[in-house]
Amino acid sequence: MLSFSPRRGREQYKISLCDRKTLTLQALRSGATMLVFSWSLVTLLLVSTSWAEKEVSTTEEDTHSQLSVSELLERANRNRKPDIDEPTLVEGDIAIKSGADRNADPCTARGCMWLKWSDGKVYVPYYIANHYSSREIAIITRGLESFSSVSCIRFRPYQNGDHEWLSIESRNGCYSYVGRQGGAQTVSLSRQGCLYHNTVQHELLHALGFNHEQTRSDRDNYIRVYWENIIQGMEHNFNKIATLNQGTPYDYNSVMQYERYAFSKNNLPTMVPIPDSNVSMGKATEMSKNDIDRLNRLYQC
């Protein structure tokens, strides 16, 4: 006859309880391991997706960086549908306030240059709208900062009390007014097609008072315009302006020079260099030496 031992029962109970704790701990460890694995897998997928997006973005930027500034501007502004508060554009990307400004003399003769301070620098306040990504802001900032290493122009962030500044926004297309306008002055750099180093420099040069190279007063000595190849209604984009050329030569490689098929209706050239029609024209990817020279002469840097 077996006898019950309370001590032995308690020991068996303790062992059983210990086993349960061990099993529970093992289960928790297993669950934690699976959780860590799951989070690691999710993290890996997110990183892989980020890398893929960055690679596609970089590839797109590299592809478009091979295009000239005029080709980029033409693509960006091709099907532009401006909002009611946006300006009329002439010459592809120059904003005007009224039709009367279309054939006006250069605004620099009327005081539209940005003012120079006592330290010899020209400070141009700017504000970048908050709808750009960090990568896009970096492209814009690089364009702004590129002027400080070659001239006395200093673009600086907007401060309370500034009465005039560049308001850099992603509107419909790429465009800028020519010269200082007063108050908040829009420079449109659309997220769709305008965020490249040469387009940023191009629009900033407009804001500083520069027109396109092909509208120079002496352009007929350097290019021949084929009016018959120009899209109907776009002829005004080739009107000459009484520009202040400041003794600088015509520059086919200026970042302000459009390429030879600009505003073409039939895929035939609208401009051809003379006397040598084979000269490369309108292929600049950044400011040329002449662009920098005439900027310094205009602002007496």
Largest sheet: 7 strands, mixed
- Given as residue ranges, the uncertain stretches (5+ residues, pLDDT < 50) are 1-25, 30-63, 99-105
Overall geometry comes to: globular
Number of helices: 5
Total DSSP E strands: 9
- Beta strand %: 5-15%
Rg, rounded, reads 31 Å
The helix-strand sequence is: HHEEEHEEEEHEEH
How many angstroms does the end-to-end distance come to?
Answer: 115 Å
Helix content: 25-40%
Task: Give the strand order, joined by hyphens, for the main sheet.
Answer: 1-2-6-7-5-3-4
Instruction: Report the oligomer.
Output: single chain
**In terms of structural class, how would the helical and strand content be classed?**
alpha/beta
Mean pLDDT: 77
Descriptive labels:
two-stranded antiparallel sheet; 34% helix; seven-stranded mixed β-sheet; 14% strand; 301 residues; alpha/beta
Describe the structure.
Helices cover 34% and strands 14% of the residues. The chain has helices at 6-64, 69-77, 134-145, 197-208, 289-298; strands spanning 88-90, 94-96, 122-128, 153-157, 164-169, 174-177, 183-189, 223-225, 271-273. Helix 3 (134-145) packs across helix 4. The radius of gyration is 31 Å and the shape is globular.
